[in-house]
């Protein structure tokens, strides 16, 4: 089944696009200069504080949140509210996890194509 959606003009001038997969996007308006204000995935994660196409903040349904930092070398750092940090090769579906540091300080790296770490350094 093809993905489809409906546009809703809201009283404040913004436009919400609700998609058949349960996700939605809030746009600043319908014009050619419209920008993304918020995106919500079908599983309830909400992305906000967009800088161009890139979100600056995420809120997950379990109550955790995170802030994205876009590094000069193209990597992306996601710092979570629980103190954990994930570093990715970039953005989008092709981004790969490069390292994950838990709130306790354990560092996982050398991730394979399935997202499994190949190496870990435990915090002592």
Q: Could you give a short account of the major beta sheet?
A: 12 strands, antiparallel
H/E element sequence: EEEEEEEEEEEE
User: What is the number of beta strands?
Assistant: 12
Going across the biggest sheet, name each strand in turn.
Answer: 1-2-3-4-5-6-7-8-9-10-11-12
Distance between the termini: 51 Å
Helix % is under 10%
Number of helices: 0
User: Globular, elongated, flat, extended or rod-shaped: what is the shape?
Assistant: elongated
Strand content: 35-45%
Rg, Cα atoms, Å: 17 Å
User: Segments where pLDDT lies below 50 for 5+ residues?
Assistant: none
- Mean pLDDT across all amino acids: 94
Q: Helices and strands: which structural class?
A: mainly beta
Give structural notes.
- Helix content is 0%, strand content 41%.
- It has 124 residues and is an all-beta fold.
- It is elongated.
Give structural attributes.
124 residues, mainly beta, twelve-stranded antiparallel beta sheet, 12 strands
Summarize the structure.
The chain is mainly beta and 124 residues long.
SSE diagram, text form:
Elements: E1 5-9, E2 15-19, E3 24-27, E4 36-40, E5 46-48, E6 57-59, E7 65-70, E8 76-80, E9 85-88, E10 97-101, E11 107-109, E12 119-121
């Amino acid at each position: 089944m093809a993905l489809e959606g409906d546009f809703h003009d809201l009283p404040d001038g913004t436009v919400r696009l609700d998609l058949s997969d349960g996700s939605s996007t809030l746009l600043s308006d319908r014009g050619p200069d419209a920008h993304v204000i918020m995106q919500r995935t079908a599983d309830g994660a909400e992305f906000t504080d967009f800088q161009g196409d890139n979100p600056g903040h995420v809120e997950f349904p379990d109550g955790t949140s995170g802030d994205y930092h876009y590094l000069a070398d193209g990597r992306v750092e996601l710092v979570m509210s629980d103190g954990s940090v994930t570093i990715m090769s970039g953005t989008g579906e092709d981004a790969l996890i490069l390292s994950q540091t838990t709130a306790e300080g354990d560092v996982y790296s050398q991730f394979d194509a399935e997202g499994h770490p190949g190496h870990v350094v435990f915090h002592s």
